[in-house]
């Protein structure tokens, strides 16, 4: 394959924060959240210039080891080759080292931006291949699947270590995120996990993970059936119509595989999870922590805010149902964006 034809104008990509595991769904379940990083990439005559704003500014590397650049270059190599130079601007709103998918967002942004920089690559780099590329860089598919596709995702790797995912439409609810001041590295959090767990604990988690998928999607399914019969739209997040069963979620979010083992790295988060659950609010550690995710009915977020310990920042977020989006043109161009991936024959247009 020869050197590809690069798009002459900048490409802007928006990627959502994600929460993985959701309690029992270790390394499998992911949920996309309405908090976004944006990346703008342009082909330059030479060199590499990186600007970072927001989280990580002055801390993340500004060379080829930058995670977005690594994902960009890996994907560009896959679709035909490297440009003479790159200019990258990152606007980071997702906290780093907090279990909200910041590394997955960086990787997905790089993969998606590279695909958009080479228009002809859309014909031979589909969503499945983007997921596989992103997973190889991230090491596990749960966050990258939700970041790429939006909504609720169930991800797995096959016998050849290739990642796959299915996307589900979550029922209406409001995620509430409690973000502490101090980060915890994913590597350190994973290092606390045992190599083996009791069979009974594994069995409990298998059942709870299945129940959790049902609990998070059952109302959406019922509303979807009703909408198809009546010709109405399914109520959106926070609509007040329907929603998740909080009592069912209390049982469905039980976990014995990872959260208890990570308490030494995040005792404050563990105490907050226990406090929220004691007051009837389903709560879990988000990803590898230390952020805590609570599931709330619409309008209940302010009540949960009172549980935040000193030093925690509370985010009352909507669900993200769209996943990664790409907008051709720089920050001053507010033209129509498009889906990163095709679903069926349609390519829906949106504004980023």
Automatic annotation (TrEMBL):
Gene Ontology CC terms, in alphabetical order: cytoplasm
A biological process from GO: threonine biosynthetic process
Broad enzyme group: transferase
InterPro entries on file: GHMP_kinase_C_dom (IPR013750), GHMP_kinase_C_sf (IPR036554), GHMP_kinase_N_dom (IPR006204), GHMP_knse_ATP-bd_CS (IPR006203), Homoserine_kinase (IPR000870), Ribosomal_Su5_D2-typ_SF (IPR020568), Ribsml_uS5_D2-typ_fold_subgr (IPR014721)
Record: residues binding ATP: 95-105
Major place of residence: cytoplasm
Stretch forming the signal peptide: none
Catalytic activity: L-homoserine + ATP = O-phospho-L-homoserine + ADP + H(+)
Keyword annotations from UniProtKB, A to Z: Amino-acid biosynthesis, ATP-binding, Cytoplasm, Kinase, Nucleotide-binding, Threonine biosynthesis, Transferase
Every GHMP kinase C-terminal domain range: 252-310
Domain GHMP kinase N-terminal: 67-151
Record-listed E.C. numbers: 2.7.1.39
GO molecular function: ATP binding; homoserine kinase activity
Compartment annotation: Cytoplasm
Pathway: Amino-acid biosynthesis; L-threonine biosynthesis; L-threonine from L-aspartate: step 4/5
PANTHER family: HOMOSERINE KINASE (PTHR20861:SF1), HOMOSERINE/4-DIPHOSPHOCYTIDYL-2-C-METHYL-D-ERYTHRITOL KINASE (PTHR20861)
Function description: Catalyzes the ATP-dependent phosphorylation of L-homoserine to L-homoserine phosphate.
HAMAP family (UniProt xref): Homoser_kinase
NCBIfam families referenced in this protein's UniProt entry, alphabetically: thrB
Family per record: Belongs to the GHMP kinase family. Homoserine kinase subfamily.
Protein name (record): Homoserine kinase
Organism: Actinopolymorpha pittospori
Gene that specifies this protein: thrB
């Amino acid at each position: 394959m020869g050197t590809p034809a690069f798009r002459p104008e900048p490409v802007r990509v928006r990627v959502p924060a994600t929460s993985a595991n959701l309690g029992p769904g270790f390394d499998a379940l992911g949920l996309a959240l309405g908090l976004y990083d944006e990346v703008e990439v342009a082909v330059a005559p030479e060199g590499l210039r990186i600007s970072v704003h927001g989280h990580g500014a002055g801390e993340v590397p500004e060379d080829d080891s930058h995670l977005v650049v690594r994902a960009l270059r890996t994907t560009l190599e896959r679709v035909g080759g490297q440009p003479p130079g790159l200019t990258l601007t990152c606007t980071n709103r997702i906290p780093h080292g907090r279990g909200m998918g910041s590394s997955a967002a960086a990787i997905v942004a790089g993969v998606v931006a590279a695909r958009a920089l080479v228009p002809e690559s859309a014909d031979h780099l589909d969503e499945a291949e983007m997921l596989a590329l992103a997973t190889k860089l991230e090491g596990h598919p749960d966050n990258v699947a939700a970041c790429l596709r939006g909504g609720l995702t169930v991800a797995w790797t096959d016998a050849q270590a290739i990642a796959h995912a299915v996307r589900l439409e979550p029922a209406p609810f409001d995620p509430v995120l409690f973000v502490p001041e101090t980060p915890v590295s994913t590597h350190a959090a994973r290092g606390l996990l045992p190599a083996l767990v009791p069979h009974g604990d594994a069995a409990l988690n298998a059942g709870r993970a299945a129940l959790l998928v049902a609990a998070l999607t059952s109302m959406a399914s019922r509303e979807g059936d009703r909408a198809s019969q009546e010709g109405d739209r399914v109520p959106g997040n926070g609509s007040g119509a329907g929603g998740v069963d909080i009592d069912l979620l209390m049982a469905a979010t039980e976990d014995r595989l990872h959260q208890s083992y990570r308490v030494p790295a995040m005792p404050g988060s563990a105490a907050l999870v226990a406090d929220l659950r004691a007051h009837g609010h389903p709560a879990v550690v988000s990803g590898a922590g230390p952020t805590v995710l609570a599931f709330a009915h619409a309008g209940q977020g302010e009540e949960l805010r009172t549980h935040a310990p000193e030093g925690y920042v509370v985010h009352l977020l909507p669900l993200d149902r769209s996943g990664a989006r790409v907008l051709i043109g720089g920050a001053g161009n507010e033209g129509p964006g498009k889906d990163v991936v095709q679903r069926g024959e349609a390519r829906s247009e949106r504004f980023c």
